[in-house]
From TrEMBL:
InterPro entries for this protein: Apaf_helical, Disease_R_plants, LRR_dom_sf, LRR_R13L4/SHOC2-like, NB-ARC, P-loop_NTPase, RX-like_CC, Rx_N
Protein name as it appears in the record: Disease resistance protein At1g50180
Keyword entries, A-Z: Nucleotide-binding, Plant defense, Repeat
Disease resistance protein winged helix domain segment(s): 441-515
Domain Disease resistance R13L4/SHOC-2-like LRR residue range list: 588-907
Pfam families attached to this UniProt entry: LRR_14 (PF23598), NB-ARC (PF00931), Rx_N (PF18052), WHD_DRP (PF23559)
The keyword Repeat appears for this protein: yes
Length: 938
């Protein structure tokens, strides 16, 4: 990891001093010398990083090297930003100018001495490494470590093998047995438990059951909740109730407004009256179950709870209707089958002799996996990137060392920890910090890729030197590549995928996260505080041994009386400060709540999201946090942004999305010329216009308002790719706006357009603006627009379309269905104009559509689907279309349809599609049918 830190710091210092060269004339020689020392140090760090796990002295030296590199970056950037700020402010008189020059002279002398001291530290550390026989290893500095073309081909092959995760081995008999116990009517079980050690495949087995056809047909409603060690009872109950009742916006709010007793009673009644399957994944203690079970029926019902746990006490619940299932580890043949599928997918292309040798080596290594699926999968992630038999032999030679390092951990890790450590150590230097950064996310959480990539970039973990030759990739593109590589190596699991096939959400397995946190602690990379009552002195002492803490994640609970400990000596070194649990936390005092955050002088990332229980104020001192690259107060109760925000000239991401309050925004965003992603509140005011034309690096602009922004500014945002715009009134100079913004609008890839005025003139103007966005992939239109552009071939890239209260004319469906590459169509809340009663999908229409979502279409009384329409449709979701009394007969022609969800429709329609109903023939060919409860509104 020291190799990664030094490499990134070297590039950061080099780029910063080049960009701000005019401010470093007095210390240029010292900067050049220290850069040379770091470059000389790089050659020794690969060997030092590998040896620190075996030798405590080397480990301490490596920690000191990391700290020296970080300190250098902090010193140089702090000085450069201060001088830059002084130059911009200028002086009003000669005496003041002389004072400013004198002060800058003192700063130059001081910064020079600090850099010289750091240079001496690095030089001495390098000498110590050489004396300790640390070898100088040369590598390609592009991070590939001399990757050969064969290795590159292997990596590309791995990419294809992980596109779809379908390699489930050894679970068939488990699924068959559990399905029988779930769907039987006599002597049925109220609770079914899957019990086993971590990594045994409990969650995978539960997912197989959750999507099983017989299970889907047997139960009417479903809910899945992960119950981590740090769970909130109410949150679990809310999630279950919302999923079981398929609650929409207003019912969701009603549930959130209930007291704990009310929500428990409601959930009890729903599970008593309906046939529900509730899956509670990963329950850790019997106490957890005792807290949750109050809301579950304790009488005979048709509902079932399926839980997974590592704790036998939880599985052996004192209930005569409980059934316990313990999956067994994979046997020798199953283990090899799984390893072969993931590590040698192209067996036919491999020489028989090579394959035989690899199988022999693989079988030897598999003995140490003890049949644990997770261990086998991670081992396969390592081996899949090794092309030759010799490389497999080297992995085999290191196996015993990793097993030895696993001894002393909890029993469940003895069969897997060595594999996880091997997988981490096998990462190239540039991926290690990216992986360790994942440790700050709470257990069992799915994290958004869009946020993660921004955090990586803000932290300086992504380098343009990783850009593929000849490409024009952005830092965010490179970050996505890094994430994809972590997925390939089986260290990250794909959660939610987007409409264009991109990864939207990810998670890491519990065992992988445990290993991640262990490594992060060893590297002084990250610290997690579960409570502010922890012993700060002991943590400080530990940090002194391992190095300064640079990243801090704080999980707040009811015990916490403040966000951070004030005046903590470690605050001055922290680069990332991320809070979790703010949604449930109510501070004892509102006054000065965020003020202690100003002690974090070199902070790059500040995430204070969801603090909506009390109104908080962003202190004006936040303008002193000039190193900030990422600032998010998303969902927090903040009414005013201070003018000092304009001092944050390094800011790359500003997220101040507040949905329920009107925020006052000063006209200072124009000073943040490094901004790449700007998310404005849903409702805000400003004195005059917010000037945005200076933000040439901007890629995302959410919340552009025609009331407070000059739309012509968009023309200068040449890197803009995502835009959310609201039109509150008719524009007086639309022709001029379109002329100045045309080229930028044509480069937009994702557009959300919200027409809030409701007038015909603004609706016409909205259509003209949308017509200028010819390159869009995703389009959402909210509010009325006169009509759709009539030339669908002008939108060859459009893959996702959302229409909400749009007022679509009946004859315009013919325009939509000609869109050649549309794969996702969502029609919300009276998407058609008021008098439209019939919705027709014509023969040959929507040739590429894969997912159709239709909800809230109250006025539609007849829906026709002609034979030959939507030939590629895989998923169909129909909810709350109360005008329909029957489903289209044409659904029976949709032979590729795999999932059909119907909820909240008229009782008459629900009766007709039951297995013995007169319309069941229309949908009987669909493998996965989810039929929810009919609407209470008829």
């Amino acid at each position: 990891m020291a190799e990664a830190v030094v490499s990134f710091v070297l590039e950061s210092v080099r780029d910063f001093t080049i960009q701000e060269a005019k401010f470093f004339s007095g210390v240029s020689q010292q900067v050049e010398v220290v850069q040379t020392e770091l470059q000389l140090m790089q050659g020794f760090l690969k060997d030092a990083d590998a040896r620190q796990g075996q030798d405590e002295t080397v480990r301490i030296w490596v920690a000191k090297i990391r700290d020296a590199a970080y300190d250098l970056e902090d010193v140089i950037q702090t000085y450069g930003l201060k001088v830059d700020s002084k130059k911009k402010r200028g002086v009003k008189n000669v005496l003041r100018r002389f004072a400013c020059i004198f002060k800058e002279g003192v700063d130059v002398h001081r910064i020079g001495k600090e850099i010289e001291n750091i240079t001496t530290r690095i030089s001495e550390l390098r000498s110590n490494l050489q004396k300790y026989n640390i070898k100088e290893l040369t590598t390609d500095r592009d991070g590939s470590d001399g990757e050969s073309s064969l290795q590159l081909q292997e990596r590309l092959r791995i990419t294809r093998s992980h596109v779809v995760e379908c390699d489930v081995v050894g679970l068939e008999s488990n699924v068959e047995e559990l399905v029988m116990h779930l769907v039987k009517d006599e002597n049925r079980h109220r609770v079914v438990s899957i019990w086993g050690m971590g990594g045994l495949g409990k969650t995978t087995l539960a997912r197989q059951l959750y999507h099983d056809k017989k299970v889907r047909q047997h139960f009417h409603s479903f809910a899945w909740v992960c119950v981590s060690q740090r769970f909130q009872v109410r949150n679990v109950w809310e999630r279950i109730l919302i999923e079981l009742t398929s609650a929409t916006k207003e019912p969701k709010q009603e549930i959130k407004d209930m007291t704990d007793d009310e929500i428990a009673k409601k959930l009890f009644c729903v599970m008593e009256e309906m046939r529900c399957l509730v899956i509670l994944d990963d329950i850790w203690s019997i106490e957890t179950w005792n807290l949750l079970k109050v809301a579950f029926p304790n009488v005979e019902t048709e509902s079932t709870i399926l839980l997974t746990t590592r704790n036998q006490a939880v599985a052996s619940l004192p209930n005569r209707n409980a059934y316990i299932h313990q999956p067994q580890p994979l046997n020798e043949n199953e283990s090899w089958e799984l390893l072969e599928k993931k590590a040698i997918p192209a067996r036919a292309e491999i020489d028989l002799g090579i394959f035989t040798k690899k199988r022999e080596l693989g079988m030897k290594m598999l003995r140490h996996c003890a049949g644990l699926p997770l261990a086998i999968i991670v081992l396969a992630g390592v081996l899949a990137r090794k092309n030759t038999v010799r490389e497999w032999e080297r992995v085999h030679e290191n196996v015993h060392e990793y097993i030895r390092r696993g001894i002393g951990h909890e029993e469940e890790y003895e069969g897997a920890s060595w594999v996880l450590a091997l997988s981490y150590d096998d990462l190239p230097y540039y991926l290690k910090p990216c992986f360790l950064y994942l440790g700050h996310y709470p257990e069992d959480s799915e994290f958004l890729v869009s946020e993660l990539t921004k955090l990586w970039v803000a932290e300086g973990l992504i380098s343009l030197r990783q850009q593929r030759h000849g490409s024009r990739e952005t830092m965010e593109d490179i970050a996505h590549n890094c994430l994809s590589e972590l997925v390939e190596r089986c260290l990250v699991q794909v959660g939610t995928s987007g409409s264009t096939g991109t990864i939207k959400g990810c998670r890491i397995h519990d065992l992988v996260r445990d290993m991640c946190l262990l490594k992060a602690k060893e590297e002084s990379f990250l610290q997690i505080n579960n409570s502010l009552q922890e012993n700060n002195s002991s943590m400080a002492a530990e940090a002194a041994q391992l190095g300064k803490i640079r990243r801090l994640a704080i999980y707040l609970d009811e015990k916490a009386d403040r966000l951070v400990s004030s005046r903590d000596e470690t605050n001055g070194h922290v680069r990332s400060l991320l809070f979790f649990g703010l949604e449930e936390w109510i501070p004892k005092s509102e006054k000065g709540l965020l003020s202690p955050l100003m002690d974090f002088k070199v902070l790059r990332v500040l995430k204070v999201e969801g603090l909506y229980e009390v109104e908080v104020e962003l202190p004006s001192e936040i303008g002193n946090m000039v190193h900030l690259r990422f600032l998010s107060v998303n969902g927090s109760y903040i009414k005013t942004l201070p003018p000092s925000l304009g001092n944050l000239v390094c800011l790359q991401t500003l997220d101040c999305r507040v949905h329920n309050y009107i925020v006052v925004i000063p006209n200072v965003i124009k000073k943040m010329k490094q901004l790449r992603h700007l998310y404005l509140p849903l409702y805000y005011t400003a004195k005059g216009n917010l000037e945005l034309s200076t933000l040439g690096h901007l890629q995302t602009l959410s919340g552009l308002s025609s009331k407070y922004c000059d739309l012509k500014d968009v023309g200068r945002l040449t890197n803009l790719r995502k835009l959310k715009i609201s039109l509150s009134s008719s524009l007086q100079n639309l022709e001029e706006i379109l002329k100045s913004t045309g080229s930028t609008l044509n480069r937009i890839r994702s557009l959300i357009f919200w027409n809030t005025s409701g007038t015909n003139s603004s609706a016409e103007q909205a259509m003209q603006i949308v017509s200028s966005c010819r390159g869009i992939y995703k389009l959402a239109l909210l509010g009325s627009i006169v009509e759709l552009p009539k030339e669908p071939h002008n939108y060859p890239n459009l893959t996702k379309l959302v229409l909400w209260s749009f007022g679509l004319k009946e004859d315009q469906m013919g325009i939509l269905e000609k869109l050649p590459n549309l794969t996702i169509l969502k029609l919300f809340q009276e998407a058609f104009e008021e008098n439209t009663k019939i919705m027709v999908f014509s023969k040959g229409g929507f040739p590429s559509l894969e997912f159709l979502f239709v909800t809230g279409m109250l006025g539609i009384t007849e829906w026709r689907v002609e034979e030959g329409a939507m030939p590629c449709l895989c998923r169909l979701n129909i909810t709350y279309c109360l005008g329909l009394t029957t489903l289209p007969d044409g659904l029976r022609y949709l032979t590729n349809l795999r999932e059909l969800t119907i909820r909240g429709m008229r009782r008459e329609l629900h009766r007709r599609i039951e297995e013995d109903g007169e319309d069941f023939y229309k949908i009987q060919h669909v493998p996965s049918l989810v039929i929810g409860e009919p609407s209470l509104m008829q």
